[in-house]
Structure formats: structure tokens, C-alpha cells
Write a structure and sequence with these properties.
Helix content is about 0%, strand content about 70%. By secondary structure, the protein is mainly beta. The strands form two sheets. A five-stranded antiparallel sheet has the order 1-10-9-8-7, with no helix packed on it. It has a five-stranded antiparallel sheet with strand order 2-3-4-5-6, with no helix packed on it.
Length: about 120
């Protein structure tokens, strides 16, 4: 699921499996501009993840404050990376019972949009 964030922050978006949010820190602006954005998502009754993306000149310059909480099961691996100046991905490996799931929580800049998505 891909959600574009443009002109209306903070944003909250929910699908049957996940809910997403993004907001500008410390204040809200009408367009994607320079600053720190907190992106987060959760899978109901399973896990919650978030991190901050620092944007400058329409590029991701750094990330910080990664957080992953397992409501059930546990995370066995967590790695937040900037793949290139337009994309950051929080890679997670979650174990619940005997099953293991890889999760990728992605923030991507496309034009003046900040897109967030989760792949499992």
C-alpha cells in the first residue's frame, strides 16, 4: 500500500492490515519542505514502527529515532538505511511463534510528495 503525503499534514491512513501516519516536526506546513518528518505504521495487535526522516532540498539527508515495538512476538533484526537520496527503508525481521516475517517500511520522496509504504 502506497500513500502520498502532500499539502495536508499530519496525515493518518488506515487499511485493513496497517495504519500509517506522517507529520512534520515541530510544526506543520502545507507542502513538503525542509525539516524533520516522523513516519509510522502499525499492524493491529502485532507491531508498531516509526522513524524520523530529515529532508533538505527535496532529498533525504538523514534518518533518526528508529523505533520498533512488537506487541506479539519479537524483532530479531532491525536496520534503518538510506538507500539513496530519495528513499529510506527500515528493514525488520519479526518472529512470532514458529513463523518469521521480513518487514520493509519505506519512505520515498517523489516530486513534492513523501510516500510511505510497508512491504511484508
Amino acid at each position: 500500500m502506497l500513500k502520498k503525503i502532500k499539502n495536508r499534514l499530519p496525515i493518518r491512513y488506515t487499511t485493513r492490515k496497517n495504519s500509517f501516519s506522517a507529520e512534520k516536526e515541530p510544526s506543520l506546513f502545507r507542502v513538503l519542505g525542509n525539516g524533520t518528518y516522523t513516519v509510522s505504521t502499525e499492524r493491529k495487535d502485532s507491531w508498531k514502527v516509526s522513524y524520523q526522516v530529515i529532508v533538505k532540498n527535496n532529498s533525504i539527508t538523514s534518518t533518526k529515532n528508529a523505533s520498533a515495538t512488537a506487541i506479539s512476538g519479537s524483532f530479531t533484526r532491525k536496520s534503518l538505511q538510506i538507500d539513496h537520496s530519495k528513499q529510506a527503508i527500515y528493514y525488520l525481521k519479526r518472529k512470532a511463534g514458529t513463523s518469521t516475517t521480513n518487514i520493509k517500511f519505506r519512505a520515498t520522496i517523489n516530486s513534492s510528495n513523501l510516500n510511505v509504504s510497508v512491504l511484508t
